[in-house]
Amino acid sequence: MANGTVTITNLGVSTAGIVGVYQILNPPEAAILGLGPLAEEPIVVDKQVVARLCINFILAFDHRVLDGFTAAQFMSRIKELVEQPLLLLL
Known about the structure:
With about 90 residues, this protein is α+β, with helices and mostly antiparallel strands. It has one domain (about 5-90): Chloramphenicol Acetyltransferase, CATH 3.30.559. The protein is about 20% helix and about 30% strand. It is built from 1 helix and 5 strands. The strands form 2 sheets. It has a 3-stranded mixed sheet, with no helix packed on it.
């Protein structure tokens, strides 16, 4: 493969309640990461339901390049960095 291997795309602002769409790979890239709109969602924190800003991430990838376990590890790391951005400084 040459040049980019992953595309990052987003839906932008959505007022229709759409939280994400499935992405189509751009050959010869290995994956595309789609970001949904930022929206307040009810989340349980310390046994209390509170409103928090949330975003959905959708990963489409070529199984000939990545297996599901590796893709899940990637998504787990993205989640960790979004929730704790100071980790990027380590």
